Structures are given as structure tokens and as C-alpha cells.
Amino acid sequence: MSNHELVVLGPSGETGACCPGLLTAPLDEDQAFELAKVFKALGDPVRLRLLSMVASRAGGEVCVCDLTPAFDLSQPTISHHLKLLRQAGLIDCERRGTWVYYWLVPETTDLLASLLTRPAGEPPTERNATRHLATPGLPAPQEDAAHA
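RESULT FIELD:
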């Protein structure tokens, strides 16, 4: 493992279970530092598209030769973006002959999802119930009939 790869450790040192959700307890300094690497990797539109292309690929993996043509970028630039996603622990890869195949690391995306998810059964606060980002493809929160 490269010393640039993200390894998220839980309270007892196990890999994978990082920390409680952001909405249930504040992150400590080390947790925030490690998670910032993952969010930084996701903060670039090219990397976000690459991750989506890898994650949504039928069969669970994709050859770099199928990723490169989707962008108006050079192959070395695409490889650099893939390297950053790999270092963040979002994808992994394997060389087969002259080609490199990539696949999603679901434990990392599951961790991010759990960090950003409100605990089961906890209703949104009144203030947050009416606020949302207008993000295509994401559902808007349901309006309360009393406030309509």
C-alpha cells in the first residue's frame, strides 16, 4: 500500500468503520483530515465523472481505454485523476497486459454515505426541512402541509 492511500480506522483500530455520522457527533481533527482527502478527490468534476463511470459500469470494472475517450483530456491527465481517486480509496485497479482496469471500493462510498445520513427515524429539523440544494437527480425534501 502506498503511503498516499487513505486508510480509515475505527475507534478500535479496525479498517472501514471510521466514525459516527457527521450529524450525530463532531469529527476529531484526525478524522476530518483523512475524510477531507476523500472529499477533495470528489471535488473535481472530471474525477466525479470518472468515479461515476467506474461505479456504474456493468460487470463492476472498466478499462482505462473505455474511460479516456469520454473526455477532451489527454490520457496522462485521465491517469492522474484516476490516481487521485485511487489514493483517496474510492477506486482500485489492476494491470492486465497493457491495460489497467478500475473498480469501485464500495466500503469507502458506503462510509461516506453513512457519514452524511441522518440517523434512522430522526426527522429533519423544521429549519432544514424547507432548505435544499437544487441538485438535478436528487429528490427535494417533502414540504410539510402545514407550511404550504
